[in-house]
């Protein structure tokens, strides 16, 4: 079974600064997918960024980027030029792909990020 | 395109009552699932379905029942509500039959309180 660990329950950073959220995972699989989801106070789950394990290049989406270290089983999220709207709970998630469509997500316990004006 | 729609958004139940959380998606996804989110925890998988007529248990299935009679709908039934089932419930869908590692789309959540 896979496990996902987020060791930072809470973080805060000044607006416009850069912040990095940590995530480690444990798996014996070689091919898998990793995700960061954002959950604002509205509780909706919003996909932030996705990384395929077979790709060496780190994924980037505008101000969001990841540092994917496959050997170390580490998948951190970097938010640059942080904005007040980035205040949310952030979840790291692991998915083992399947040809049959039963692609289940395993979530970490989340990091509550607060952006300070 | 509505995506994943959950109803109701809020519900209060008395212990022992039964109810159904509805979930519908309009993306022709084959895979649908239900998660629950408790304070201080990530989402945990309750039940999932890989297509109409096919369902299976996830990590925390006890006290819940599901069925999948159509591709679009995947209702979650609480058979006899207990306070331990107070949680936020998320429905999700993915996989339109092409490729693997598809992005999973979530509904907006249903807040359930059992008193």
Structural class, from helix and strand content of chain A? mainly beta
Classify the beta-strand content of chain A into a percent band: over 45%
Characterize the main sheet of chain A: 6 strands, mixed
**Largest interface by Cβ-Cβ < 8 Å:** A-B, 26 and 30 residues
Q: Low-confidence parts of chain B lasting 5 or more residues at pLDDT below 50?
A: none
Poorly predicted runs of chain A: none
Q: Quick one: overall form of chain A?
A: globular
Strand content of chain B: over 45%
Instruction: Bin the helical content of chain B.
Output: under 10%
Shape of chain B: globular
Distance between the termini of chain B: 36 Å
* Separate helix tally of chain A: 0
The biggest sheet of chain B amounts to: 7 strands, mixed
Q: What helical percentage do the residues of chain A reach?
A: under 10%
Rg of chain A, alpha carbons: 14 Å
Radius of gyration of chain B: 13 Å
Supply database-style keywords.
heterodimer; A: 117 residues; mainly beta; six-stranded mixed sheet; globular; B: seven-stranded mixed sheet; four-stranded antiparallel sheet; 11 strands; 0% helix
Written description of the protein model:
The complex is a heterodimer of chains A (117) and B (115). Chain A is mainly beta and 117 residues long. Chain A contains no helices and twelve strands. In chain A, strands 2, 5, 6, 10, 11 and 12 form a six-stranded mixed beta sheet that branches. A four-stranded antiparallel beta sheet of chain A has the order 3-9-8-7, with no helix packed on it. By secondary structure, chain B is mainly β. Chain B has strands at residues 4-7, 10-13, 19-25, 31-37, 43-51, 54-57, 64-66, 76-78, 87-94, 105-106, 110-114. The interface between A and B is medium-sized, with 26 and 30 residues.
């Amino acid at each position: 079974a896979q496990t996902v660990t987020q060791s930072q329950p809470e973080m805060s950073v000044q607006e416009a600064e850069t912040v990095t959220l940590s995530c480690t995972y444990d798996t014996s699989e070689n091919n898998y997918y990793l995700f960061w989801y954002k959950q604002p106070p509205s509780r909706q789950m919003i996909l932030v960024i996705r990384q395929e394990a077979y790709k060496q290049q780190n994924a980037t989406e505008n101000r969001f980027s990841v540092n994917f270290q496959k050997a170390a089983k580490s998948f951190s999220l970097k938010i640059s030029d942080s904005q007040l709207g980035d205040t949310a709970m952030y979840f790291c998630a692991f998915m083992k792909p399947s040809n049959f469509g039963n692609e289940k997500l395993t979530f970490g316990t989340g990091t509550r990020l607060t952006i300070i004006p | 395109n509505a995506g994943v729609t959950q109803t109701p958004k809020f519900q209060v139940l008395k212990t022992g009552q039964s109810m159904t959380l509805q979930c519908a998606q309009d993306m022709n996804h084959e895979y649908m699932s239900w998660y629950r989110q408790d304070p201080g925890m990530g989402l945990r998988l309750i039940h999932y379905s890989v297509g109409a007529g096919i369902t299976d248990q996830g990590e925390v299935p006890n006290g819940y029942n599901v069925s999948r009679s159509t591709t679009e709908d995947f209702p979650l039934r609480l058979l006899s509500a207990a306070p331990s089932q107070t949680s936020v419930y998320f429905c999700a869908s993915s996989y339109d039959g092409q490729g693997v590692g598809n992005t999973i789309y979530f509904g907006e959540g249903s807040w359930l309180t059992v008193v």
